[in-house]
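In this section we walk through a basic example: taking a raw amino acid sequence and producing a predicted 3D structure, encoded as discrete structure tokens. The instruction is simple. Fold the sequence below.
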Amino acid sequence: MRQVTFKTASGFIPIGEGLPTHFIAEIGLNHNGSLELAKGMILEAAKSGATMVKFQKRFPEKLATAEFLDAPFTKCPLFGSTQREVRERLELSFDEYKILEGYAKSLGLMFSASVFDIESLEFLTKLSDPIIKIASHSITNGPLLKEIARTGLPVICSLGGGDQKETDEAFEILKDNPLIFLHCVSAYPTPDDLINLDTIAYLKERYNVPVGYSSHEVGVEISIAATVMGACMVERHFSYNRAMVGLDHGISLTPPEFAEMVIKSRRLEKVRGVKTELLPAEKIARNNYHVGVYLTRNLKKGEFIDSHDLICLQPLNSSEQYFTGLEINDIVGKIVVDDMGPGQQLSRISIK
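The resulting token sequence is shown next.
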């Protein structure tokens, strides 16, 4: 159950345990309301190794109270002086979303968007192969979760800012959808001592679903570590430049940083696994530096071998042909089939 399959334009993509990590470039609202900027970021995400791009869709008046929307908001003064002005300026139309979805798919990327209200969910379901993202602060939005569950669509759900009971309830609502949980800490940026990457393994065991990591820390090292610890996805905010004006540019990775994360993670994917058998690549060192069993004196054909007649020395040469040092006690009491002298290595056919 720790794998799910997402339907995409290029076919069905399995995601989860034992499979390559997917990297989500969260463009979010970093397009600043510009279709061309959004397309440019999709291209840079593809070049940087992303496998999915993610946007954010909300209808502000459906999401928040008028008092909240019209309160002074100083984070992006160039975009407006209230949440309503800023949020409405940053929203893209359905036709623009269709263009972005098609463009992402033409570059081999999966396309997703966070939905923050039911109208935004209805908006996204009109695309061809939507993947629904549930942002951390939506996991307590019961009506939205239930509407998402009814779609049967693939769901990626971040768990920042929720407690255990709320996560359990969200799981119960969403468990019949193709579901991925993302471990997340809703602190921007997240201090290292709050990240708690072992939560990835905990969530896998508790819910038996694929688990990834939605990251808000500084740098790429911890995101890379998450892939080694089994994260099936890593999501990072993505921007041309952290100095750009906008809501999330300052907590984003730039294309070179995102590429560094992907390249190093892809290398570390190769180091996972459990070694229980001799590897072909080890045979040269094994044959040269493991010990074989050698004689310390002359023995005549038919003579019995005593423990004092044996010594373990390098090289082993070949364990198919010669005895290893672990087998020395098996040789004691056997007889040699030919005359042998000191310094000769005992082969498997030299005794009986």
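Looking at the output, two observations stand out. Residues 280-331 form one domain. Residues 114 and 349 are 70 Å apart (CA to CA). In the next section we compare this with other chains.
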